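Recap slide: Maspardin, sequence and predicted structure.
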Amino acid sequence: MTNALIADRDRFAASHPEKRVTVNGREWGMIAAGEAGPALVLIPGTLGRADIFWQQIEALRGRVRILSLSYPSTGGIVEWADDLAELMRRQNMDTATVLGSSLGGYLAQYFAAAHADRTERLIAANTLHSVEAIQQRPPYNSDLDGGPIEELRAGFGRGLTAWGETHPEQSDLVEMLMAEQGGRIPEPELRSRLKALKHGPELPPPGIPADRIVTIEGDDDPLVPPDMRDAVRKRLKPAVAYQFAWGGHFPYVVRPTEYTTLLEEQLGLELTGEGWGEGRARSK
């Protein structure tokens, strides 16, 4: 049976291949799209490359200048934040709405504090507020430098398999993520993503006012428990907190219309979707 998500993503990837660019000695992957409109930076989580946001890129590229990223194989949160500022400069983005999911959400929060002058808006999605306890949790409690990559990949595989068994309607997503962790994300890049969180810095206070901060979360997110979601909101005090009733850790993949709608709202664009459906938003 054809996996519709993978087929559609691969179609997009063939027409929008990653460009490899070196910043401060680190090689990033990037997809740049759109020539006019507000600027939007998209930062994936551990199991995504720049093209994992393909549905949002295609929906917005005619109205938004987009920079979507894949992580390098070296460096960490602090270095990557400085690299991002330089990548934005090269794309002539003085400021941008910066959306990061999961690992990307942690980086986006750090970036908004370290480079507030370049952050028009922060959107912290399906993410965490602290890495204080993460070192005791798998796979972060493993030897991320010398441990067998097969063991690290197998750990992701077990978690994805369990999610697929309880959510068979998301089997296409699980298969796509299995391919990402199984080799589409090269070993050095996968290790660097894990180490970035394991050794991540404490987040500084937000560098921009709360009325320019947004959060996104999912009621059924298997990786970000309710107490962590609450802690993210307590720390950031967002002007708007979007809450998906379902969509797991990857609502931008499995609920692309609703996800695009919230981006249109935040970027001040005309809404093209059908609204929230089973998702819901709450404002403070």
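Residues 4-133+202-283 form a domain with the Rossmann fold fold (CATH 3.40.50.1820).
The longest strand covers residues 26-33.
(End of recap.)
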